[in-house]
Each structure stands twice: as C-alpha cells, then as structure tokens.
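Need Olfactory receptor's 3D structure for a figure. Predict it.
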Amino acid sequence: MKNLSIIEEFVLLGLSSDPDIQTVLFVLFLGIYLLTLMGNLMMILVIRSDSHLHTPMYFFLGHLSFLDMCYSSVTVPKMLQNFLSQKKTISVWGCITQSFFFILSGGAEGCLLSAMAYDRYAAICHPLLYTVVMNRPVCTAMVSAAWMTGFLNSLVNNHCIQSLKFCGPNIISHFSCELPSLFPLSCSDPMANTILLAGSTAFLGLVTLLLILFSYSKIMFAILSISSSGGRGKAFSTCSSHLTVVLLFYGTALFRYISPPSGSVLERVVSIQYGVITSLINPLIYSLKNQEVKAALQRTLRQQMYVSG
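Structure prediction for Olfactory receptor:
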C-alpha cells in the first residue's frame, strides 16, 4: 500500500449537499436499512427454526438473506454517517476495504442467484431426480463456490489497484467507494485496471445471467404444459417477479461497472438500485410472497406465543 500513501483520505460527495435534503435522506435510508435487516433476519430465523423449510430452495434463500444483509451493510452505515457529518471523508484503507467487500458481495450474489435459478429448474423440470441432483453436499458446494468466486473476483481487482498512485484530487462524486469512481482520481494510467474490472464483471455477470435465463426459459416451457389456467397464472406471476428483480440487479450493476464513469446523478441512482434496493426487495419477492414461508412464519409466531404464555 506504499503507492497509496500520497493521499490519506477521500471525500465522498454523497447524494446531496443541501442539509435539509440530507436530513430527509438520512431518515429514508435509515428506514430502508432497518427494514432490510429485519426482513432478511426474519427469513433466516424462520428458515432455521421450521423443519418444513429445510429444503434446497430455502437453504439458498437463507444464504441469500444473509448475503443481502452483508451487501447492504457494506455501504449504507457509512452513507448514513455522512448524512449527519460535516466532514464526509473515508480513509484510503477504508475506501479500498469497502470496495473489496462490495465487489465480493455483488459477485457472490450473482452466482447465488444463478444457483437458485438452477434449483428451481431442477425442481420443476426434473422433479423425479430433484432430490438426487440437489442433495445437501451439492447445495453446500454451490453456495461455497458462489462465495469463493465473489472473493477471488474482488481480490484480483482490489489487489491490482495497489499499482495506482493517488496524488489528488481526492473527491469522489459518489456516496460509496466503488472502483469505477476511484480510477479517474489516479495519477497513473488506470487503463489496465479498467479493462480488468470491466472484463471480469462482464464475464461473471453474463455467464451467471445466461444460466439464469436458460433455467427460467426451461421453467416457462414447463409451465406452459400445465393444464390448469390458475396454476399457469400463479407460476408465471412468480417467475416474472423473480426475473424482474434479477434483470434490475444485473442491468444496473453491469451498466455501472462496464460503462465509463461520469460522476453523474444517474450513476448514484443506479448504485442505489443494485446496492441498496435489491437487498430490501429480495425477501419480499423470493420469500414473503411464498405461501410456505407465510405458513412457517405463522407456526413460529404461534410457537413463540405458546412458549411465552
């Protein structure tokens, strides 16, 4: 990290410089963050406590909820602090650490979403082989591979930033430290780092997205063979909501990490979508709309009331 010692801290401009607007944004994002933590934590507790949900699908959903809590916690607490602070700075080490865990969480989430799509494909299109194909060791290996892929992708990109020299300016036109925002501040040529980040993001993003689209296309064809119109409608509604969340996550993340940084308001709005909003709506779309989860939640609440009574 000797090359990064020229500048000791960066200044995060955030979403607004107006104190009144910052107060409103603090309340808004604090509410979003607390709802994200409560929704995902509730999902984890319900899945762990109810034996009816000890299946591959909910095994993945539990890990997705934990990952979403981590993903949101990488950037939102620092953003909330800056809303109330006059000095909106972050150390160079803190900035690179935040970037490391942000890319790790994002890469792991993309891989986990593709694993979940494959799980639904196996369950719907090959129900007789489902318990054989998606056994516990396979599910554990898929989740471990998702975390490891995110870790390696983040490690490579954040390690290579050590070759850059930052000697000013130190103002980041964003509310968090992301590598696309750091590259324009480098005094040395960041072209190799930019190509590496765009290439690794495009490769990882497109491979996992294609796996998701393949799985859901097979699921759609299987749904079309359902004789009941009500069953088809319910299945299409579920799949369309899942795909909407996936496409919003992938579309905004790929746009942010592949396109040249501009420091525009659009970039910050896009980052809020994949870095904050996705973690909030995932438990709603994937789990809380699920009848099995609702039934498990009711059983858990009744059990807690019985124990406390």
